[in-house]
Amino acid sequence: RTFLVRFRGTSAFDIVLAMVLKALHFAWLYALPAYIHGVRAMLLPWFVAISVGGFWLSSLFIVSHNLIECKKAEEPVRDDKGTFDWARYQIETSSSWGGEIGSFMTGGLNLQI
Q1: What's the chain's Rg over C-alpha atoms?
Q2: Where are the alpha helices (DSSP H) in 27-98?
Q3: Between the CA of residue 6 and those of 3, 86, 90, what are the distances in Å?
Q4: pLDDT at 32
Q5: What is the distance between the alpha carbons of residues 51 and 45, in angstroms, rounded to a whole number?
Q6: What contacts 110, CB < 8 A, 6 or more positions away?
Q7: What is the pTM of this model?
Q8: Which contiguous run of DSSP H or E holds residue 14?
Q9: If 0-12 CB within 10 Å is exposed, 13-18 middle and 19+ buried, where does residue 72 land?
Q10: What pLDDT digit, counting tens, does each position of 9-58 carry?
Q11: What is the mean pLDDT of residues 101-112?
Q12: 3-state SS of 37-52?
């Protein structure tokens, strides 16, 4: 239990599935291209993909969490028992933006609430 939110925990199957999918992701994006084209030929494409992807994600997160309306809740609200309400704080400090075009361009990452 974290703040006022109960987490169910992760099953052993979910952990194994996550590790298998991470290995598949690594193989698909790094091992297979390196095998086919060679590591030297892939250095520039990997660098560009990681740089552009990182910039794109950071730009999305900055917009979703750095609006004036989100800054009003600087301190999490305490309930009657003196504990913080984590879920309420998350909702008050994030925003949705962009409508249908923003959703299409970001794959839904612009929808925070």
Answers
A1: 20
A2: 32-37, 39-65, 68-71, 86-92
A3: 8, 11, 15
A4: 96
A5: 10
A6: 60, 63, 64, 96, 97, 98, 102, 103
A7: 0.58
A8: helix 12-26
A9: exposed
A10: 778 888 889 999 999 999 999 999 999 999 999 999 999 999 999 998 88
A11: 82
A12: HCHHHHHHHHHHHHHH
